[in-house]
Structures
1.
Amino acid sequence: MAMGTVTAPWKQLLLNALESNANLKHSSFFQLATIGSNGRPSNRTVVFRGFQENSDKIQINTDCRSRKIEELKHCPFAEICWYFTDSWEQFRINGRIDVIDGSNSDPMKLEQREKAWFASSLKSRLQYLGPLPDLPCLSEQPSQEFSLDPSTGPVDAFCLLVLDPDQVDYLNLKSSERLTFTSRQSVNEEKCWTSKRINP
Amino acid sequence: MAMGTVTAPWKQLLLNALESNANLKHSSFFQLATIGSNGRPSNRTVVFRGFQENSDKIQINTDCRSRKIEELKHCPFAEICWYFTDSWEQFRINGRIDVIDGSNSDPMKLEQREKAWFASSLKSRLQYLGPLPDLPCLSEQPSQEFSLDPSTGPVDAFCLLVLDPDQVDYLNLKSSERLTFTSRQSVNEEKCWTSKRINP
């Protein structure tokens, strides 16, 4: 029943789910759980920004000043829970998150961050120019308007998160099908996935 | 801007969100994050089973044999992330979970568990008679059919989780309003909530 494969076998299931729920704006939203600085679980909705090119790594854009950045420095592990409301499918994706901000020393990663910046809408980019998140709002007036040249590269507050999955649990509530996918590093450093059908 | 109150001020916001999203079946689903036995975050979709009578405590039904029970014994803290897809509101609810199974020594809690059992549909109850969850599915044939007398009380596998919130973060993506609610124990043992408007 178990079989080994180098390409992530759950990725096609996820792409299918995205396609069959594409009519819903919120189908690209999922919940990302991390461990808070106080040792308690922390959980919030974030937006799927696609897979990193030719891989099964999941991209998320965030603000360097948000609490999750601090949390991920303490514990880099996270679990995505992604429920598709139309097809009744759930993906639980566990892995380690790489936090890529402007101070990263790897030119490849800085390039990925820049790509993610330009791939997001101008409106999304403007959010990174706003006031510090998670801080008390002191004024009653609406927040100041910012403008940004479309050719301007990523601002300091822009941070790319890359989740490298090593365990995926798939549940289909319509068919009652449940599958777990587990990865291990193979000899040639490539990730190798095995899958197992389990009781829902 | 901060004010103290004994009744949870976020509860009405949540009841309003439930009402304005009531047309969607999935509006009663939320994601529950816990800490796994391996120290990593764990996250899954569960169903809201209402507030405990005259309180702000949140009820969830689950199977005693599910992995989250073991996890909650290691670390009883959890965070709910509840996103309402129609009204674009998010509630992050952090608190401690009380695990109530049939072996509980408190008669009041056993009564709550029994109430929760009878409040759930017969179809839901039948799930607790099925095979062990989280275990490999060995047979290819569809799972055996079970029958249950509607007057039968909670079976061994039925477990009531009661989350006692102490921190709630509310975000409205339409109005860009964000509020945090924090509780502390007052002199007379009652929970006292303070709220604060923060930058979204």
2.
Amino acid sequence: MIRLSTSDPAFDRDFTALVNARREVDADVARDVRTIVASVRDEGDAALAAFTQKFDGHDLHATGWRIENSEWIAAYEALAPDLRAALDLAAARIAAYHEKQKPADSDTTDSAGVRLGARWNAIEAAGIYIPGGRAAYPSSVLMNAIPARVAGVERLVMVTPTPKGEINPLVLAAAHIAGVDEVWRVGGAQAVAALAYGTQRIGAVDVITGPGNAWVAEAKRQLYGLVGIDMVAGPSEIVVVADGKNDPAWIAADLLSQSEHDPTSQSILFTDDAAFADAVAEAVDLQIGLLSTAKTARESWDTNGAIIVTATLEEAIPLVDRLAPEHLELACDDPQTLFDRVRHAGSVFLGRHTPEAIGDYVAGPNHVLPTGRRARFASGLSVLDFMKRTSFLQLDPASLAAIGPAAVALAETEGLPAHAKSVALRL
Amino acid sequence: MIRLSTSDPAFDRDFTALVNARREVDADVARDVRTIVASVRDEGDAALAAFTQKFDGHDLHATGWRIENSEWIAAYEALAPDLRAALDLAAARIAAYHEKQKPADSDTTDSAGVRLGARWNAIEAAGIYIPGGRAAYPSSVLMNAIPARVAGVERLVMVTPTPKGEINPLVLAAAHIAGVDEVWRVGGAQAVAALAYGTQRIGAVDVITGPGNAWVAEAKRQLYGLVGIDMVAGPSEIVVVADGKNDPAWIAADLLSQSEHDPTSQSILFTDDAAFADAVAEAVDLQIGLLSTAKTARESWDTNGAIIVTATLEEAIPLVDRLAPEHLELACDDPQTLFDRVRHAGSVFLGRHTPEAIGDYVAGPNHVLPTGRRARFASGLSVLDFMKRTSFLQLDPASLAAIGPAAVALAETEGLPAHAKSVALRL
């Protein structure tokens, strides 16, 4: 963890280094992924089975390729009542939030008599990637599948690696709740390629979303354009802006809730109170050893954590904008005033009683958010990622007479005579 | 040009081949682009000057790096009155259409007492790529720059190669009309890299849009994630669905308006009238030789053109959906009935008096549209490409008590104790 203060003479240099530090793994996976993707494109299921044997250690022909709906229902019915209620509550709230994202069509006729508008349609098929093993999160199933379902996607396909054939029943239960249509026991770059190209068994999809390791992320990046993808995702991060009136233990827990995800995760505290900064640092040290995730959390906090003391909370906001964090907590008396001045953040959590983790699970907004400063230009996952817009025009002889001559003039000056002629013939 | 009929026994096979035919150049540009991008990242303006000398044949230090505002104004003032009026009309109509795309923020408190919503902000800086030389189109400047301006982007940077130092004054005039802030004399993959990383002279941007050759497209694809991009673009295409009551010359001109763009462009006619199909084919042959773009148009039409006879116009619609064309004309008495059944198309032109070219210039909707079957999942360029959404949440002790326990249960089952603790401490 580094400590900075805006009053340090070297602050600008040190903060710029923090902003520019790359936490993303630069492993040379691109070449391996190209090979895997080409194999699946050319050989389909045979390649998929071979890579699954190699990387996940099981024989798809023995374990079965697809996990049947009856297994998901069984997993759902076997849930402890409080967990079932929690997943049902989360699903209902996520659906309600995303329902409001559905865009409106437009269809108007302007003063020149030109009818013009736009119509939104759902994509036909979406694929969601859900990691297996340690990071098999039912919340990821809900967050990726429900926006697709709300958008109106007809075919919702989930792929998930099942190392040695094993799968987390909570993930299956979440697939059942979220209304997934197919679940396939495949993962890695090979599963992403199968979704993009289609194989003998797995039908191709139009959009692929969902979290994954560096191979999965690189496969999505390489296949972007053949299919739509959600985003290029990196390690998760939180920035907390807190005054000295917070309980240090609460803020320490918030910081650790990102640190425990991955050694590359980042947690940053801005505060205007140096004594509070000390108290939070102590509370982190106290809590961290008690976590079952202590090893990961400690590596992340030691390597990427930061506490920055500012003269005022307001002074933190332009610095936050430079970080453009995935998650931003504003833990102070009047968070709205600060929030009004924030421009770049994936999701913002206002006030002392809004820990970031509430947004990871049950609040409603999506937890798939832009990382690595991408909140400067990207948004969290939404219904729009599973829809597309068709614009349309309709002119009649009068409206074409009104605006057509301008089109002819421009087409001629651009050296496109057939463009000009197609309008001029109708004038 | 190929002729197909849905009554042919081999139609399914032949049409599937047409759908799957790749018209995109498979040149191995990726490696060259990686080299260029890395050079500009590491060496900045020195690399930019060297590549410009090599590819565009001029010395940036001699010609100047930047084209000053006074030159754009001079270009605008030197426009012939009808051209100036045409560009002004186009700009006003494009701005009016895109103004309606601005998304609404949301901010509500639900029955559990949870405040939740989303706020849209413009990105700070956008870069638009405008090709130089033969395909230097002022309409591209308007179509890329105006949505950015409407979104509220503060800094709008245009890059355009000026082969041997020359630039099309119409492009400069369009930059002036569209409210561009900076114009730089650089192009190719090196210009895209300069926009993404920034150099000593050119400040980095957040989103890069605009048409370009295979090198430009590949550079955008490689830099996607560091910056936002509009889309992976391929050769343009038109599908016309027309009954036998159309003037064959009009429909021929519409088909040729795509063919003349590039040898890889594609024009396809669906009609329920075999005699009309013959008449259009003849009209194409008659018109094509008269075009100044004859060579390109003929190569495109001969290689990629198609005329498909169907039993009814309705029969064409599912076939159109499989093609998911960039442009779709519905030239018949009741285009709305057909349009209601279309799902995948970038932009649709309804009725006999709506040639596609009217949408290229002055109608208002954007002419930057998904190609190569990407209308299955992608949309045309819009204000949304220059904005991003921040979700937000605010809970109080009562609302956290209502939904917090479910978050604790889910965090615990996912093995994330700090997530659970950050909520539980506040309950």
